[in-house]
Amino acid sequence: MADVQKYVGLDVGGTTMKAAVVDDHGTAFPAISLPTEPERGAEAGLETMVVGIRQAVKSAGLTLDDIAAVGVATPGLMDIKRGLILDPPNLKPWRNVEVPKHIQAKIGKPVAFQNDANAAAFGEYWVGAGRDVDSFVLFTLGTGVGGGIVIGDSVLEGEYSHGGELGHLRIALPTEGRLCGCGRRGCLEAYASATGVIGRTREEVPAYRGATVLKDLLEEKGEAVEAKDVFDAAAAGDALAAKIVDDTAYYLALGACSAIATVDPRMIAFGGGMIAAGESFLQAIKSYILRFGLDYPAKQVLIQYAQLGSDAGFIGAAGCARKMIQSRKS
Amino acid sequence: MADVQKYVGLDVGGTTMKAAVVDDHGTAFPAISLPTEPERGAEAGLETMVVGIRQAVKSAGLTLDDIAAVGVATPGLMDIKRGLILDPPNLKPWRNVEVPKHIQAKIGKPVAFQNDANAAAFGEYWVGAGRDVDSFVLFTLGTGVGGGIVIGDSVLEGEYSHGGELGHLRIALPTEGRLCGCGRRGCLEAYASATGVIGRTREEVPAYRGATVLKDLLEEKGEAVEAKDVFDAAAAGDALAAKIVDDTAYYLALGACSAIATVDPRMIAFGGGMIAAGESFLQAIKSYILRFGLDYPAKQVLIQYAQLGSDAGFIGAAGCARKMIQSRKS
Q: What is the distance between the alpha carbons of residues B130 and B120, in angstroms, rounded to a whole number?
């Protein structure tokens, strides 16, 4: 046991932050959650991060002396190399916050810093869906579409911390494409995010001639309707919902085809809420990749669901801390 | 001088192969050219490669004893890791040819093997447009659109040797996109290759109400019309030609935006025939990247023309040989 090092991984989201101790094998001790409350400002947020790290250590029955390093993952906009949160829309009003420097000063341990979607990709690559492959792309499906790319044990961070921003792969011309949250038309996220699924549902229902439960659903739930409702309706046999879900697989596959034409990874995994759609959704993505991707890699690339759920972020953050320590040794 | 090693770079194209000795500084001795004549079969082709390498050494006033290693670049389809040409459309009827193994046996030197567009990207990264940056993406504009990605001194080869196949980045939905040479609709190459430029010209001329020299050009030259003719007409002030050229910049920028959302490089360079279009074409690409790319990286990414012309392939192949030797040493 003396050889097994331990790390704390902290994943800071716009609503909640999660932290846990993770060991060298990627096994996580019980995780703790705290509200992020970004509106209280960066100083309060940094303090919550420190509290979260300490709580995670305590709930593992350990002390900080048992911890080799800490990994912190935050949402963009950020400058990974300089260890800086810039101006993340999910953490308003935080600006230009030196997160790793602050945590290091307070905790007294080396701190690795990573984008949250990159950290999730690294977690899946380390001990999740991608644990047996050397090159790995993760699409994370949520309100938006995030992503992360890991090649040969390194996160593809990019020069400006925008590597693996796969929600903004372009899949349609600006003249014809759907409007994305980023203000441009034609990004993958405009089609395949939860927001995109609901938007397409609102457009398709009025024009649909057949019977569909989605009509009542939109009337009853109004603004509260979720992508999950559409996926549930599809699973229950609703034809229009099934079409909308299948279209989602199609759009995701188009994004995956561009990931193949750039990175050409061994595995592309899909994580986030929509993976509850099950095996048929994954098979639909696969079949569209075969149809619209470069033949040779499309036939061979592995298509899977992510396996770590919402733990991927803190596990990956801990994995980044571990990698940092190991590369210092070698 | 004793410390400056020398390499042979060989770039095998469908029509011609070029080879030259290149030293540690990336300086090339005079290059030689030989016809590839793929129709004569792989055995004859391999023999020509060996002859080309020997001629390059001789024309540099050297002997094979002066050469540390050889780099060979060939067009896809290939398996870079296994050192195998698979079934390249430009080298029919070659199939499953162990190029580096054969060259190594005949020349008696270590042989590096790389895809031709990747080699060109590595050449530009080493001593061309990208010599001062750490992450670099090259789009090569010709009959098709090729590409290569170099991050931190490594070519992004991909798991199935399809890394940096940037001509097949998707920019339009399959339902709306132009037909690509790969048989699918919506790839960048269908729009921005020389073939795509001519195709768009043929479509736009009949519908154009104004005066344009392109009309006469199409009638006079028929099938022989080239993308260069359209670019020349634009440079001479033809309004429709200028629109077609500007659209080309727009489509290339859309592809570049997806390269930013995956790789997020320090520099994106454009090489091949169209770079004769000059500074205004490059500026047009830049302005579309600013409009359709992720704000933060789009503002900072360097956009340039490639600098090595058709020498990039053999210089890059030599650079790959050099890198192989150096990593064996370290």
A: 11
Interior CA angle at A168 toward A194 and A304, to 5°? 65
Cβ-nearest to A174 among B160, B163, B292: B292
User: Which residue of chain A comes nearest to B263, CA vs CA?
Assistant: A163
3-state secondary structure of A145: strand
Q: Two tokens at A248? A: 């989602």
Specify the 3-state DSSP secondary structure of A22: strand
Please, is A224 exposed, middle or buried when counting C-beta atoms within 10 Å of its C-beta (0-12, 13-18, 19+)? Answer: exposed
* B71 contacts B10 by C-beta, under 8 angstroms: yes
- The residue with tokens 């911890």 is A67
Q: CB A170 to CB B254 under 8 A?
A: yes
**How far is residue B149's CA from residue A259's CA, in Å, rounded to a whole number?**
13
- B159/A266 Cβ within 8 A: yes
Percent helix, strand, coil in chain B (nearest 5)? 50, 20, 30
User: Which chain B residues are closer than 8 Å to A260 by Cβ?
Assistant: 162, 165
Q: DSSP character for B25?
A: T
Indicate which of A95, A173, A179, A188 best probes the interface with B, i.e. most B CBs within 10 Å of its own CB. Answer: A173
ipTM: 0.96
B149 and A262 within 8 Å at the Cβ level: the answer is: yes
For A13-40, the pLDDT digits (tens) are 999 999 999 999 999 999 999 999 999 9
Query: Which residues, in sequence order, are CB contacts of A202 under 8 Å at separation 6+?
Result: A218
CA distance linking residue A97 with residue B277, whole number of Å:
44
Residue type, A211: A
- Say which residues have a Cβ less than 8 Å from residue A19's Cβ, sequence separation at least 6: A8, A9, A10, A11, A31, A32, A34, A52, A53, A55, A56, A314
Residue by residue, pLDDT tens for chain B (330 residues) are 457 999 999 999 999 999 999 999 999 999 999 999 999 999 999 999 999 999 999 999 999 999 999 999 999 899 999 999 999 999 999 999 999 999 999 999 999 999 999 999 999 999 999 999 999 999 999 999 999 999 999 999 999 999 999 999 999 999 999 999 999 999 999 999 999 999 999 999 999 999 999 999 999 999 999 999 999 999 999 999 999 999 999 999 999 999 999 999 999 999 998 888 899 999 999 999 999 999 999 999 999 999 999 999 999 999 999 999 998 765
Q: Which helix (H) or strand (E) holds B189?
A: helix B188-192
pTM of the complete model beyond 0.95: yes
Q: Which of A78, A162, A176, A179 to mutate to probe the B interface, most B CBs <10 Å? A: A162
Which positions in chain A touch B149 (Cβ < 8 Å)? 262
- Say if the Cβ atoms of B171 and A173 lie within 8 Å: yes
* B172 to A172: CB separation less than 8 angstroms, yes or no: yes
- Judged by CB atoms closer than 8 Å, whether chains meet at A262 and B259 is answered as yes
List of domains in chain B: 6-124+310-329 (3.30.420.40), 131-307 (3.30.420.40)
Cα separation of B170 and A173, whole Å?
10
